[in-house]
Design a protein that fits this description.
alpha/beta, four-stranded mixed beta sheet, three-stranded antiparallel beta sheet, 6 helices, 9 strands
Length: 200
């Protein structure tokens, strides 16, 4: 679905690839997370319908700062916060739900992004939180291992693994948690050329 496809969009943005075909997606979707077509265009990704799916193409990136309220699409927050942080794009992202399925997500994002050298501020609101980033990131030395304590949040596991594209060895806690929504995630990464090993 389009929610799972958001991580493929993230990988595409962070990669040197110019085109990517994603099979099984209908561009005329009724899924609310289909908004990623428009949101990622700001990051330099054009989405076009092709037979059997959609094709992504790199275009000029439009943004230098990012602001969005994800109240209606809270599951996309990990993907966009990590994408922005890895690109060094300052952001203000609203809508981290305090009463939903991942009430600790803002704190976990702050902890995990800290492993990559990004300092995140959390602003408390009535029933949600806003996460803010000033664009400054002191990333670890290329080739070093980055440990992501995803705390059983499968969306964090999927959002942080693309950091490997920047030359890091990314260690994800409890990698099988992605089976909650995307059982083929690690297999799909292997198809894209990622080298994946699981410690027993």
């Amino acid at each position: 679905d389009w929610g799972n496809a958001s991580y493929l969009y993230e990988m595409f943005v962070l990669s040197n690839s110019k085109q990517l075909l994603i099979k099984g997606l209908n561009i005329d979707t009724f899924q609310s997370d289909g908004i990623i077509k428009e949101l990622f265009e700001e990051f330099g990704v054009k989405t076009e319908a092709v037979e059997g799916g959609v094709e992504l193409t790199k275009i000029k990136r439009k943004i230098k700062k990012y602001y969005h309220d994800f109240e209606n699409n809270p599951d996309l927050i990990p993907c966009f916060t990590v994408t922005c942080a890895l690109l060094g794009i300052p952001f203000k992202i609203k809508g981290v739900n305090l009463r939903g399925r991942a009430p600790e997500r803002a704190r976990m994002l702050k902890e995990c992004l800290g492993q990559l050298g990004a300092t995140i501020e959390i602003k408390e609101e009535k029933e949600a939180q806003t996460v803010l980033f000033d664009g400054n990131i002191a990333m670890p030395e290329t080739g070093s291992q980055v440990n992501i304590p995803a705390h059983l949040d499968h969306r964090l596991a999927m959002a942080f693994s693309p950091a490997a594209l920047l030359g890091y060895r990314v260690a994800i806690e409890n990698p099988t948690q992605v089976n909650k929504t995307y059982t083929a995630y690690w297999d799909d990464l292997k198809k894209l050329g990622f080298d994946i090993a699981q410690e027993l």
